[in-house]
């Protein structure tokens, strides 16, 4: 089984290349231009356009059930032969939430708190988007444990961008 690799938009091309990823998830504002790396074929790139917000706000696009459904469906189709790269603008909120969600969706035996602690260990700046995590907690039937685990690790360290990191699918 392979792993998930998380980065910022700026680090994404290098991260994809270094890890040999052939699949890519982009979670970013819809109007942001993202150049897909040549190694990633168009059908293997999921672009989810929404803002990094925790509540509905006029003029912004909040993470939705549709975004979550697309994310989980894409992750379930991933072959796991190579790493899956996930990025947002800073590599701190949307992408870390997506990695946390996909790890649990792919391996439902993972303990939510143990995975959240591993996420914090590997990414001190990670601050997973709480709305996306809450939507996933409900959809995956985790009984509030995903939300509680992410709340327990708290807000990450201040950073303009996160450092790329690997999140395993098993602990």
UniProtKB/TrEMBL annotation:
SUPFAM superfamilies: (Phosphotyrosine protein) phosphatases II (SSF52799). Residues 65-134 form the Tyrosine specific protein phosphatases domain. Gene3D superfamilies: Protein tyrosine phosphatase superfamily (3.90.190.10). InterPro entries: Prot-tyrosine_phosphatase-like, Tyr_Pase_AS, Tyr_Pase_dom. This is Tyrosine protein phosphatase.
């Amino acid at each position: 089984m392979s792993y998930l690799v998380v980065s910022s938009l700026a680090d994404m091309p290098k991260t994809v290349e270094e890890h040999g990823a052939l699949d890519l998830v982009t979670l970013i504002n819809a109007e942001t231009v993202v150049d897909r790396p040549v190694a990633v074929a168009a059908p293997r790139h999921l672009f989810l356009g929404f803002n990094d917000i925790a509540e509905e706000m006029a003029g912004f696009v909040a993470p939705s059930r549709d975004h979550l459904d697309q994310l989980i469906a894409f992750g379930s189709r991933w072959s796991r032969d190579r790493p899956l790269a996930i990025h947002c603008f800073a590599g701190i909120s949307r992408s870390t939430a997506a990695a946390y969600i996909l790890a649990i969706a792919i391996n439902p035996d993972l303990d939510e708190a143990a995975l959240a602690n591993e996420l914090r260990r590997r990414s001190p700046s990670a601050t997973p988007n709480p709305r996306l995590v809450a939507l996933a907690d409900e959809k995956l039937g985790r009984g509030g444990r995903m939300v509680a685990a992410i709340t327990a690790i708290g807000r990450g360290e201040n950073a303009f961008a996160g450092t790329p990191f690997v999140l395993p699918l098993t602990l």
